[in-house]
């Protein structure tokens, strides 16, 4: 007869690893709790320190001072008279519980350690007095008020995990006191646990909402800066496209002069003919590179429309036609041109026209119907051309105007500044006392002097 095998003890080793895992999880949770409760956020920085309003920055100090001044005598009176605690002990605990609220303005987590420890000592001390029966315990009413004020300061500063750790620690302390509660007391740990959770959630919501608004404002500021930068780059690209014709014309003249020099001038040495041929070849290569550059700068819309860059660039000679289009748009404009037309550099001629065009386009958009005067004149020394566009305040009420046929092609004042900077001029713009606006530009009639280059020596291989 075979006997039954003895009962196996295999489940015992399985329970031991589970117990070890539970202990390890508890240790990790306690370690995480200690880290969260011991790592404050921005210690030493007062609440509302980043607020621009001076009175709002002082508000935390005023509230903390008000709570401390009101709770200190109240707590001493309640602990000594109602609960029968010794006066010295009641004064010490009340001081720790109320005056520490001043610390909560800049270091709320450190203040919580002080106040929470004082509250625990107070609860233990109340178990040894006779007046606790029938009264609130372990947290008397003044203690609850001060603790809730501390929770608000804590929630406005610390991260969410720290707030959860504080809330759970408050609940755990209440549960432990519940196990050793004196007889015939009104237990208040559930009340404090619930109210502190509500206060922490409310403060954290306000803080996160404020953080979101600040980030949104920062993002809008960055977007505005990027928009301004993009506008500037677009305007510079547009100016570069317009100046392509001017530069290409000069390069074409160089090419023709270099190619025709051996036929126009007799007796040129062979080395000089080769040099002229190299100059012409370089000029043609430069023209090809200019065309490729224009292809990069030309926008997709320009490509689809057939490329307005192929048309001749305008100058001040086309200002009368521009003024006619502005008058048809409902803006009365007077034009005054210099009696003797000066010979302008192509870039200056184009810049003067575009400045007037942008100024008139701004009048049509922002001051429809306003009387406007456009004048161009040379300075007394004949070195600069003054472009002046002045408009008065628009008539009230302003009526919608017809679209300007030759509207601005750039970005208003940004384009004017770039064109003036391009030709080494100056620009002055601003509102007038009567509600009008003034645009004054000074453009040089001669190109800026290039830096002098050293003369070639005999060893440089020059002609």
Automatic annotation (TrEMBL):
UniProt-listed Enzyme Commission number(s): 2.7.13.3
GO cellular component: membrane
Chain positions covered by the region annotation Disordered: 433-463
Feature: compositional bias, Pro residues: 445-454
Catalytic activity: ATP + protein L-histidine = ADP + protein N-phospho-L-histidine
The protein's enzyme class: transferase
Molecular functions per Gene Ontology: ATP binding; phosphorelay sensor kinase activity; protein dimerization activity
Keywords for the protein's UniProt record, in alphabetical order: ATP-binding, Kinase, Membrane, Nucleotide-binding, Phosphoprotein, Transferase, Transmembrane, Transmembrane helix, Two-component regulatory system
TM ranges: 61-80, 86-105, 112-133, 139-156, 163-183, 189-206
Histidine kinase/HSP90-like ATPase domain residues: 351-446
Domain Signal transduction histidine kinase subgroup 3 dimerisation and phosphoacceptor residue range list: 235-300
PANTHER family associated with the record: NITRATE/NITRITE SENSOR PROTEIN NARX-RELATED (PTHR24421), NITRATE_NITRITE SENSOR PROTEIN NARQ (PTHR24421:SF10)
Protein name stated in the entry: histidine kinase
Organism field: Streptomyces auratus AGR0001
Lineage of origin: Bacteria, Bacillati, Actinomycetota, Actinomycetes, Kitasatosporales
């Amino acid at each position: 007869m075979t006997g039954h095998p003895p009962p196996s003890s295999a489940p015992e080793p399985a329970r031991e690893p589970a117990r070890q895992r539970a202990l390890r999880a508890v240790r990790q949770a306690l370690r995480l709790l200690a880290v969260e409760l011991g790592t404050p956020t921005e210690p030493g920085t007062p609440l509302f320190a980043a607020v621009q309003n001076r009175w709002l920055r002082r508000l935390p100090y005023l509230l903390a001072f008000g709570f401390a001044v009101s709770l200190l005598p109240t707590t001493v009176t309640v602990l000594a008279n109602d609960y029968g605690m010794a006066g010295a002990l009641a004064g010490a605990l009340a001081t720790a519980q109320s005056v520490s609220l001043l610390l909560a303005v800049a270091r709320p987590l450190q203040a919580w350690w002080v106040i929470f420890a004082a509250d625990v000592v107070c609860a233990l001390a109340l178990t040894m007095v006779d007046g606790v029966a029938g009264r609130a315990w372990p947290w008397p009413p003044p203690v609850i008020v001060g603790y809730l004020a501390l929770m608000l300061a804590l929630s406005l500063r610390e991260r969410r995990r720290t707030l959860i750790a504080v809330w759970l620690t408050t609940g755990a302390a209440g549960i432990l006191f519940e196990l050793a509660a004196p007889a015939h007391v009104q237990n208040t740990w559930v009340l404090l646990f619930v109210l502190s959770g509500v206060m922490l959630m409310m403060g954290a919501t306000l803080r996160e909402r404020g953080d979101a608004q600040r980030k949104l404002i920062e993002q809008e500021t960055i977007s505005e800066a990027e928009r301004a930068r993009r506008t500037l780059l677009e305007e510079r690209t547009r100016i570069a496209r317009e100046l392509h014709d001017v530069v290409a014309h000069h390069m074409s003249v160089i090419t023709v002069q270099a190619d025709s020099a051996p036929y126009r001038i007799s007796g040129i040495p062979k080395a000089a003919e080769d040099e002229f041929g190299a100059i012409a070849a370089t000029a043609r290569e430069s023209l090809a590179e200019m065309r490729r550059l224009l292809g990069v700068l030309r926008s997709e819309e320009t490509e689809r429309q057939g490329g307005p860059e192929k048309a001749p660039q305008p100058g001040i000679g086309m200002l009368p036609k521009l003024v006619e289009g502005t008058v048809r748009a409902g803006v009365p404009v007077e034009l005054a041109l210099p009696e003797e037309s000066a010979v302008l550099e192509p870039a200056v001629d184009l810049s003067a026209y575009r400045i007037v065009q942008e100024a008139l386009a701004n009048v049509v958009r922002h001051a429809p119907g306003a009387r406007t005067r456009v004048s161009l004149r040379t300075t007394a020394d004949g070195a600069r051309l003054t472009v002046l566009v002045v408009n008065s305040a628009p008539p009230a009420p302003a009526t919608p105007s017809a679209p300007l046929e030759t509207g601005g092609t750039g970005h208003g004042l940004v384009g004017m500044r770039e064109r003036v900077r391009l030709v080494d001029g100056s620009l002055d713009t601003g509102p007038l006392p009567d509600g009008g606006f003034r645009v004054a530009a000074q453009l040089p009639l001669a190109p800026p002097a290039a830096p002098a280059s050293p003369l070639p020596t005999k060893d440089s291989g020059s002609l």
